[in-house]
Amino acid sequence: MGASKETKYSVCTVCDIGCQLRTEAEEGKVSRVIAHDNPALAGNICYKGTAVPLIHNHPDRITKPLKRVGERGEDRWEEISYEQAMDEIAQKLAGITNQYGPESFAVSTSGWNTQTTHSLDRRFMNLLGSPNWISGVALCAGNTAAVNKLTYGWFPMPDYGNTNCIVLFGHNPRKHSWTPIYNAIRAARARGAKVIVLDPRISDQAEHADVHLRLKAGTDAAMCLGWLKVIFDEGLYDKDFVEEWCVGFDALKQRVDEYPPERVAEITGVAAEDIAAAARLYANADGAVIPWTPITDQQLSSTSAIRLHSILRAVTGNLDVVGGETMGGFSAAYIPESELALHEHLPMAQKQKQLGYDDHPAFTYRVAEMLKEPTEKVWGYPYADIVMGCHMANPTNVFRAMAGEAPYPVKAFFCLGNNALLSYANQHQIYQAMMNQELIVAHEIFMTPTAMLADYVLPGDVFTERNHVADSWSWTTRLTLSQKVVDAPAEASSTFQFWTDLAHRMGFAEEFPWQTLEDMLDYRLSRSGRTFADFETATYMELEPPAFRKYRKTGFATPSGKVELASSILGDMGFDPVPYYRELPERPEDYPYLIFTGVREDPFFQTGQRNIESLRRRTPVPKLFLHPADAKKDGFSEGDWAKLSTPKGSVLAQVAIRDTMKEGHVRVPHGWWYPETRGQAELGGAFISSDAVLCSDEDEWLDHEQGVPHFKGFPGKLEKASQPEHVTRIKPEDWKMDAAVEAHAGQ
Ligand SMILES: Nc1nc2c(c(=O)[nH]1)N[C@H]1C(S)=C(S)[C@@H](COP(=O)(O)OP(=O)(O)OC[C@H]3O[C@@H](n4cnc5c(=O)[nH]c(N)nc54)[C@H](O)[C@@H]3O)O[C@H]1N2
Ligand SMILES: Nc1nc2c(c(=O)[nH]1)N[C@H]1C(S)=C(S)[C@@H](COP(=O)(O)OP(=O)(O)OC[C@H]3O[C@@H](n4cnc5c(=O)[nH]c(N)nc54)[C@H](O)[C@@H]3O)O[C@H]1N2
Ligand code: SF4
Ligand SMILES: [Mo]
């Protein structure tokens, strides 16, 4: 690259919202990451974006392929060449799948940080014959996409630019958490849009909301049923749309009648008149949105709650209208991953072996097959995968099988850009599952606890080192340029390269004809008559003009062609076709608190960045949040250490007392481990403070239809504890400061 300074447009993948930023390089290293030069996009950067040079140039970055030399998890390695690693991985994977069948191979990835997979993982697995692909998107947006399809065949995106009312079920974007969505909500508010927040605690969004309903954790589905009761009783719904475009109204109405506001008040702890007032505000708005939220992705009544959001959107006439929820469909300019994945190549017999297919089918191939025909008719592809989440195996079923339970052995497990050990429920089971593997491959940029359990760790490239055109995993039709500004370390690979090289070694060279990532991008852009180079020189972002009410021409992509208020697919599979609310299992007496997990801390994305000093100094140790009355009752002062236990396990965290908390609730952060304790604490301290230790995936804690675990209100208790062993750097000043990050963070 030489000494001259280069500036490029790159999509940040530190978190999954994908801001386009400007990246600068000097002497072959990324030197600075700054805001966009388009004023409309300039606000879309958080201090994690500013910290990218510190992450990408970090001395701990894995740059050489590693092969395990000690026992599994001992964290002892030898450096080997990329070619040797790939040869050995291919040979071992072939041996395992020959012995146990292709379904003995499972992959876990979330795809957002690795970015350039182009569904080649699914393509490879489909050619090999394995349906067992799992992902963090099973708990976040991917599962929402699959469940939305049951109701109206697509996963809509809110029209923030034109809406007059925004309803946030917990979802709490902030200046340093999903910054573009935070900015979009702020802009809507400035235009006069109303904001309704449903959150047990006073969140950042709740502070500025027009209405804040402080519901009890885990009761969102009941709240939605209460809203519908008000909306139906008071005739606040779009009768023409319901008549012409919906099926199942009577069955839904019957269910809704069981939830008068007084009953919902009892369940949720919110006054009946406040429930009714919020429902009216939403239903009467001229253009209202219920943006996607992870809260209802991770609840006992998840499928019902997500379906109730869909139903609220539909019956209030907000589907595919200006200021409502847009249903974009696939971009005509970019071949979608749905086509690249080759789902039609996986034989039906293998699809039926997908773990979760029988008992928790909502986001598996079982539903995908039932939606194939209408999906092809309306959206042009039989397998429409949105946010990667519409054809997944169930993570709990996969970990159980990996640990040696029924129905068949799973013996090879690859994790790409995913810290699987900490990223699902029931960490002890995931650990057992991983310890029972014959082959584990991690594709990573840092030595995570998951990577420590691997046989091979392959160094990944990062977004400043690769070209891409981002399409929000088919959720929108926007195409965003992401340019490489520096070269990757010589032995690092993109996930594109990894899957291509593996495929070539395992007999699928013909189906993987692309030599380079740019060839793949050219192919994906080919139907628009352009190459990546054309795209790159012409624009940094492209958006197809929106079209509304497209269903009038095509119908909806459901079996009936209508919005299914009662889902024929759920009914056909033996589930209740109409959404319902499920009470939480009884709380044991000695577990007085309702725990909810999933706190997103500003400096980190999920389990990452605990090793980036300038970020870590903002939150050096995990904090659990308590209401002052609860702290007093249990004798805790600010900064004390506490042991938080559930029937599944215990973790340690520092107590933070906040009057914004709801009494009786404890809020715990996600994804904590302590990279600095590597070599001292087991697996980098992965069992000290990780929320996954606390979360159960026993059947009674799983949503019926999808089998996702309940993270929003499970039983827990608190005891005094001392600071964890080996964790010594617990004050901000123990961690190095970076002036640019500090300046941005303080804004
Ligand atoms: N800095 C930073 N930003 C991030 C991320 C990150 O790791 N770091 N992660 C990104 C990702 S992947 C996601 S999914 C989002 C998640 O971020 P958000 O959508 O904001 O979700 P959470 O932070 O999990 O919780 C939001 C709120 O839900 C409330 N809540 C808890 N239980 C319930 C419940 O049962 N019902 C209701 N209605 N509310 C409840 C909590 O009090 C909290 O205020 O953040 C994204 N942004
Ligand atoms: N227990 C529990 N589980 C959860 C959640 C929870 O709150 N609690 N939240 C859920 C949610 S909302 C989500 S979105 C998912 C998130 O799940 P993921 O998005 O998979 O997040 P992580 O598991 O933290 O894994 C990201 C890993 O990618 C690595 N990485 C970063 N950039 C690159 C890259 O360019 N290349 C490669 N190869 N690796 C890279 C990081 O070092 C990190 O280890 O987790 C879900 N799982
Ligand atoms: S919000 Fe921050 S971390 Fe996420 S993509 Fe934007 S700049 Fe990167
Ligand atoms: Mo997420």
Description:
With 747 residues, this protein is of the alpha/beta class. It folds into 4 domains: 5-59, N-terminal domain of TfIIb; 66-135 and 331-460 and 486-512, Rossmann fold; 157-326 and 548-572, 3-Layer(aba) Sandwich (Dimethylsulfoxide Reductase, domain 2); 593-734, Barwin-like endoglucanases, CATH 2.40.40.20. It is 30% helix and 16% strand. It contains 27 helices and 27 strands. The strands form 7 sheets. It has a 7-stranded mixed beta sheet with strand order 5-4-17-16-15-6-7, sandwiched between helices. It has a 6-stranded mixed beta sheet with strand order 23-25-24-27-22-26. The chain is globular and about 70 Å long. It binds ligand MGD (2 copies), iron/sulfur cluster (SF4) and molybdenum atom. One ligand MGD binds at residues 15-16, 140, 169-172, 176-178, 198-201, 203, 215, 217-218, 220, 293-295, 596, 598-600, 602, 604-606, 712-713. One ligand MGD binds next to strand 22 and strand 27.
Low-confidence sequence ranges: none
Helix content range: 25-40%
Mean pLDDT: 97
CATH architecture call of the largest domain = 3-Layer(aba) Sandwich
Heterogens: ligand MGD, iron/sulfur cluster, molybdenum atom
Helix/strand/pairing category: alpha/beta
Total strand segments: 27
Radius of gyration: 25 Å
How many distinct folded domains? 4
Distance between the termini: 33 Å
Strand order of the largest sheet: 5-4-17-16-15-6-7
The CATH class assignment of the largest domain is Alpha Beta
